[in-house]
Specification:
Chain lengths: 97, 489
Amino acid sequence: MAIVHARQAVNSAGAAPAPSPYNVAFVFPSEEDPIQLRRGVFAFFIVYLLAVTWPVALPFSSAEPFVMGVPFSLVWPILWIILGGLALWLLDFVEDR
Amino acid sequence: MERWVIITAIIGVYLALTLAIGLRAGRDTSKSVTGYVAGDRGFGLLVMYFVTGASVFSAFAFLGGPGWAYSRGAAAFYILSYGVLGIAPWYILGPRAARLGRRKGFVTQAQLLVGRFPSRGLSAMVALLSLMAFIPYITLQMRGAGIVIEAVSEGNIPLWLGAAVAYGIVVLYVLVSGVAAVGWTNTFQGIFMLVIAWVLGIYLPIKLYGGIGPMFEAIQIARPELLTVPGLAADGNPWSWGAYSSAILVSAIGLTMWPHLFMKAFTARDDRILRRTVVLFPTFQLFLIPVFIIGFAGVLFVDELAQPDFILPHLILSVDLPVILVGLFCAGALSASMSTGDALLHASASVMVEDAARPFRAMSEQAQRAWMRVVVVIAGAIAYYFALDPDQSLVVLLLTSYGIIAQFAPPIVAAMYWRRATTAGVVAGLVAGSLTTLFFFLNPELRPWEVHEGILGLCVHLPVLVVASLMTPMQDADHVAPFLDPDLR
């Protein structure tokens, strides 16, 4: 919704929104397009939610294969924590520049 | 000298140190309500990091987590799955709420809501619902403290006395120093318990099984059902995917909406600190991994415990550790309990006085602080009463709280992002959602696919909020504009 309001603010000021050079949701964006990045990170967290809940989590729910001695059913949520952390770090890194 | 006496003495030293830090913390804050509730809005990154982390690393994680891993296996993995999902929206919501707080002087979540949707009834309703969610959560922390002390003292200090002593100290430093005590004790306790968790999580599997890999291989052979998601239900039968998935969803929504998290947003010095706190939060989630490993270490080593939440202290006392280490480990578990409990007690008092009483009766700053102290004692006493019930699982208590708190999500999002939302719509949605949650909480057998009652509440809440808002007159544009200001981004 914040994205929508930011867009509305630009439109109401009479300026056309700058065309985005990106056609897909999750690419490394430039500083000029932080909205695109927020949208990409939002999409990522939707995928994260789907990945750890039914039915997407079904194929990743068993103990095997073991990864460095740890059951895959435990590795799967750990993997998403790391990916989630990286996504937040990327967002902060780009927005902080 | 008997072993339990030395361990109890070490815990006594730890409690005294915590009390000293808590009492010292309040010296530099002002005597105003903003000083007591929001620490004069002066928290830096280190303190914010541990204050936020304490919401994850509670007695629920330190004792309930291993308890679930031990008795219900992979069901506990839902706890790992929801944390980052829950904190991510805070990257956007937190700074936005904090800026609104600075502009309009809000120090609680309900003040933000009522600022947009003026209604004293709404304020009181949010305060009461918050208290209904806080009490089980504080109960959980107190029970955790009592469990640790009873176990390490070999029953010489019963649960009721251990919980009373630990929380007597918490109440004392919250009474004196307010949120400043919460911040600095959380920092001390946070560092302490993280070290303890990793040391134990690595040491116990090596000691009992020869390593983490051999431990999981042994469990896979003997109890394979424990390593397959969604694990087991409390009765030992397989848990359903509906319950597992909805536990993740309701906990993620609930984590974002905890009133004390909002109150801590109002304590941050600036937005950068809030965003950095969110970015660093996943590191706290990773600290949960050794906690689960501790629980799994007990699967083949400990015969069925009547109360699985006792598994951590039980294991510590079973393996041959030097007595000083046992004392420190137990102090780590106490840290987890107290660092969350103090924040919740403080939040309960702030919410009840600021949101339930003050809208109805004018109070001086001095009177507000005095009443907050009274409520700290009352909330502590109520939670203590429930903490003595032996039939309550720590994790079940927490899930109950999340069902209530999740109902705050639609009004909060509507307050900051939806122009068309109205006071009538928000009140109607909150009433409908809360009653639905309560209905399914009391009639769990009626829940479809065992979906969490909080999610079912939201399924009713959202359409009621939207329809009732659209059916009632729009709010004045000048009133709404500051809440939807794009500069708040």
